[in-house]
Amino acid sequence: MNKLVHDNLAETRNNLVTEITLLGEAQFNYKPDTNTWSVAQVCHHLVLVEQATLKAIAWGLQESDSTLQERKKVHLLILDRTKKINAPKIVEPNVEPFEVQQIVDLLNDSRNKLVTFLSTIADSSLLAKKSVKHPALGDLHLDQWVEQIYLHEQRHIEQIKEIKLLVGATS
After folding, report:
1. What's the pLDDT tens digit per position in 66-79?
2. Which residues pair with 132 in a beta bridge?
3. Residue 144: strand pairing partners
4. Listed residue (157, 52, 38) closest to 99, CA to CA
5. DSSP of 62-94, one letter per residue?
């Protein structure tokens, strides 16, 4: 994994943890309405996405080289919050309440597994040569699957800030 991607993953995760660590349990689990996730659910969704991404990359590495030539501008697709993206069932969060530390532990665990897995890839150039279909973004090179993790977190950090304003929480 290149240094820029590693740094973006770390910086974005640090920003996420900073946004949530001082929240009380009621604030963390507050749902503004029935169609909106709580901060806790947003974070659980991020854990599930990271876990699913690791599986997708592992699967994609076992496939033959991709014929996909075009690289999508995933940052434009993901960071545009005017376009709602419905989460696939597999990455929908639990409805039960969470504790902040419980989510921080899940976030740390999923990140450690991802970084460890990526460090075991003998030829990281394969990430730019192979692709897998992403449920919301279509065919993506595997290195773009890694990139979408921190972009997706950035998208949801903005959502978390909005929910915190509704609940009267500041960081």
Report:
1. 767 788 999 998 99
2. 140
3. none
4. 38
5. HSPPP---PPP-HHHHHH-TTS--PPPGGGPPP
Q: Count other Cβ atoms within 10 Å, centred on residue 154.
A: 17
The length of the chain is: 171
Measured CA to CA, the distance from residue 163 to residue 138 in angstroms comes to 29
Quote the Cα angle for 34-40-46, to 5°.
Answer: 105
| 2.120.10.30, 1.20.120.450, 3.40.50.2300, 2.60.40.10: CATH of 3-169 | 1.20.120.450
Q: Is 3 exposed, middle or buried (0-12, 13-18, 19+ CB in 10 A)?
A: exposed
Tell me the domain boundaries of the chain: 3-169
Query: Is the per-residue pLDDT at 171 higher than 70?
Result: no
Query: CA angle, 63 as apex, 144 and 51 as ends, to 5°?
Result: 50
